[in-house]
Structures are given as structure tokens and as C-alpha cells.
Amino acid sequence: MRKQTKRGYTIGGIVMKSMRVERLGKLFRAAANPKRIRIIKAVMAGSSSINDISMNTALPYKTIERHLEILSSVGLIQKTRSGLMIDYDLNTNDKDIYHKTILQLINQVNY
């Protein structure tokens, strides 16, 4: 149960800052979609372009593009442009424990 206090929110007896709660909610919403989990798994397996991800997930290009934007916006995936090509990789630079935990959980998923 979530309860608001002067210092933030209390969740299970732990006081969390409002911004932290919002970030956690965005991460969970982004990772909760089965197509996004498949995309993250493909990137974990070494796919780096939308074409590679499409071949490994059997998802259409536009679907992958839309989901990659959502994953990028919350920091789970980072994109690197080199010329006309855009490569996608896991964002392993984020020090947030929730970010790391979500990626570890997705890594254990078999699909």
C-alpha cells in the first residue's frame, strides 16, 4: 500500500522520494510489455540493429521502432548512431538498483 508523507511515499514501510517512485513506475510500465521483453532479450543476445532484432523476434520493423523508443526513454536501452545506422545496446551505465534488477529479471525469462 502506498501512502504519501512529507518526505515522499511510504511503500511497505520504506520512504521513497516522489521522483524515485515515478521513475520506478515508468521502468515497470516499460518492462511489462511482452514485446518489449522479447526486444530486450534480443538485444541481450547480441542483436544491435532493428533488422537484427526483427529477425530474432519476428516482430515488424515499425513495432520494434516504437518499442525501442519507449525503452530508450526510460534508460533500459541506449542507441548509438554511426552514419545512417543506429545500433541499440543495453544501458549498463545506469547505477539505479531498480534498473539493474529489471534487466536481471528479464535475462532469466525464457521465451
Could you please describe the fold and organization of this structure?
- This protein is α+β, with helices and mostly antiparallel strands.
- The protein has a domain at 34-107: Arc Repressor Mutant, subunit A (Orthogonal Bundle), CATH 1.10.10.
- 51% of the residues lie in helices and 19% in strands.
- The chain has helices at 18-31, 34-44, 50-57, 61-73, 97-107; strands at residues 2-4, 9-11, 14-16, 77-82, 85-90.
- The strands form two sheets. The chain has a three-stranded antiparallel beta sheet. Strands 4-5 form a two-stranded antiparallel ribbon.
- α1 runs parallel beside α5 and α2 crosses α3 (50-57).
Keywords:
three-stranded antiparallel beta sheet; globular; 5 strands; 111 residues; Arc Repressor Mutant, subunit A; alpha+beta; two-stranded antiparallel ribbon
